[in-house]
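Example 4.3 (complexes with small molecules)
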Amino acid sequence: MQHDKVLILDFGSQYTQLIARRVRELNIYSEIHPFNKIPNNIDDYKAVVLSGSPQSVRGDDALHPNLSEIRGKKPLLAVCYGAQYLAHFSGGNVAPSNTREYGRANLSYVKKDEPFFEDISEGSQVWMSHSDTIKTLPTHGELLASTHDVQNAAYKINGETTYAIQFHPEVYHSTDGKQLLENFLVNIAGINPDWTPDSFVDETVDALQQQIGKDKVVLGLSGGVDSSVAAMLLHKAIGKNLYCVFVNNGLLRKNEFQDVLKQYEGMGLNVKGVDASARFLDALAGESDPERKRKAIGRVFIEVFDDEAHLIEDVKWLAQGTIYPDVIESVSATGGPSATIKSHHNVGGLPDFMKLKIVEPLKALFKDEVRRVGASMDMDKALLGRHPFPGPGLAIRILGDITAEKVRILQEVDAVFINGLKEWGLYDKVWQAGAILLPVNSVGVMGDERTYEKCVALRAVESTDGMTADWVNLPYEFLQKTSNDIINKVKGVNRVVYDISSKPPATIEWE
Ligand code: XMP
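Answer. The structure with xanthosine-5'-monophosphate bound is encoded below.
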């Protein structure tokens, strides 16, 4: 079954991904493409959205999309830079604004009975974030709405199905933003909102069967949401021809290897647990440099995985749990690779020598959609709600060199913290949490004895995608109890601190 699709042309706004998410929340499939790489199969898209941008339409480096196959031919919604672009280069005028146009504003309607604003009431709050302003509308432009500071906050172009807005409907602070997108996409563009998790599962399973046929597929399970959901989809499609490998790198959480393996077996997956802890610890011995630790783990993982794949006779495919943000980051509008902050070993796939064809059933989905797809296959809620956990595991939470004893200490500390979050009903309110073992000893006193032991940091963050994050304001009572429990139960630790840094400028992991 073909679903109506929306094309989002990205001009580099920090909010472009949010547009895609909001559209998908309406059960409409959307894709982001850079403004200068408009797909050839433009007829496959039923409507187009132009995103915002950090650039100005007045600058020499203004971004110019080729809209010849779009404007006047398809429903078009232009947001912020998009709205300014349509004005400035089509008979209107954009100039620097005199007043601050950042933050909340309220719509006042100029044009009543406009389907674009159906079910959106006078005064509705919208989010502004721009420094230029539209002074004059383009040719055939008709004003639809203003705010206190922005005269041309929304307009349409008569004779076309083109709408333009200066504010950002995709940002949550635009209270009726989703309604506005629905008005445009469903009522005006006539899109059928039928892209649901259930339909995704049915169609993906069919497509996987077509693609793979009777071939064998190998997949590396990590215990996380993405690889588990990818495995379930493939399992539904090809059953026992899916060979899952779950590698214990010795850097997982306490009891995680056994617990998760059991859970996978309970789900009917054909899964092999490979305990390679010793191999990883050997490769890490004496290494303190964060990047070299990551590289060593990546290298050993590939070796172990390759050994396992070779044991599967005639395997043709490698399945990966790649999700949409990994894909769009590699085609960013502004182009050019961004600086390597950390090398995430599991992004970028396995080396060519494996000679396997790649299958990535989740590569069109955002993380929250992966969870919904998992739920629609009745996967365990606790598995789907698991916090993200980095591929290199506790190695990047043990600062300095890694020893089996340090891993043991951190596993114990982490278990007290995570179990505590669960007991206090806080686990699901936190996006990610964990403990970090610091390379510092400090003096303490226990009973009448002087101690000189390790210090651990606790980290809990709120985030939507890990790109930015805020530390969580955990209750003092919880922190107090957790700190006591850790120091009393975990031998070798006499001090606990709580990390109150946001990302940026810090990162979520310490290494
Ligand atoms: P940072 O530390 O970059 O982390 O703010 C952002 C998110 O990415 C996770 N992370 C990783 N995940 N392999 C992974 O699968 C890695 O090498 C890796 N490094 C960091 C981190 O846990 C957080 O969720």
